[in-house]
Amino acid sequence: MNHMNISINDVASQWADISYCENNILDFLRSGNYMSDEPIQKFEHAYADYIDTSYAVGVSNGTDALHLCYEVLKKDKTLLILQANTFISDAISAAEDITIRLVDCDMYYQMNTDLLQERLAYCRNKYDTIIVCITHMYGHPANIPVIMKLCEEYNAYLVEDCSHAQGASVLEGRVGSFGMVNPASLYPGKNLGAAGEAGIITTNSQLADNHLRLLRNIGSRQKYVHEIKGTNSRMDAIQAIILKEKLTLLDKWNTIRKHISMIYAKELDREHLVLPEEAPWCNECVYYTYTIRTKYRNALKEYLHFKGIDTNIYWPYPIQKTKMYSELNVGNFKTLIYASENLGLPIHPYLNEDSLSYIIKCVNSFFSEKIYENSN
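Above: the chain sequence. Below: its structure as tokens.
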């Protein structure tokens, strides 16, 4: 095999597909009206239409999006239930007066609904408000039908973190349309990514929409008039211009990701690897990552790096293993196992056939040539 260099993602190539929008950016810069809401509103309307929600609120980044959602929903004694294998932003976004509890994931890397029900039943009478924040991990939708029923039964708010899953769906519709408020990071490497930091929140509640807009703008609707204690979390207008154009290509890009995932599923060594599966409730998985598992993960990662293939671990240190959340380290066994075994392979719309074939050959040769036997 000839040596190749393959990155985990290729966000720079996206610009070639939307370079025509540079005139819109230049017009904006020449205008001098850098705090204009117009580009942001155009993207918000387009995104809300895409997700099929009444409202979308552009914000500065995904962490702020999570924080604003929690602030809208929290009241008196509040419990936040997170899945244990999500990114740490879902936890650190919560204010100090919110109690956090973790629920383990299932074989699809989504929140385990049986364990969620146990947690809700145990905690319902101990808190005034319960927020269930699910993450549609790796581009695969969580079990929305069951989770919605549980939230209704236990009078809990559903929040969908859609950072991995713009365009994913269950039979009932696209993710981001089911929760009370639904944040998403638009970090550059996401399926829909900005050229820098950005985030978005969707909702069907006019009250939530109004509250979010106040919170993101220092609690102000009118200049110098501040109604509530808010934050400075507005979306940058240039990011909105870029994101609006990328949104028109998102379904195309997701279709390519799906095609690559099918080739991986067909060609990778299933005898030695655990490959991702799609759950019965999944209508569309958009493969933000293609995450495989093996007990030889570290050796495989090192071998692929030697072969010029970039990979990523999602994530090596679960929330409960961080210093500030060590008190949450109770159970969550799948999360801990998966954190020691998972490895994300390159998957993006610009991964060509030669690169894909090279990745598959390198991964399979690691096992067929028993290279793992020399690893620690």
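Residues 250-374 form a domain with the Aspartate Aminotransferase, domain 1 fold (CATH 3.90.1150.10).
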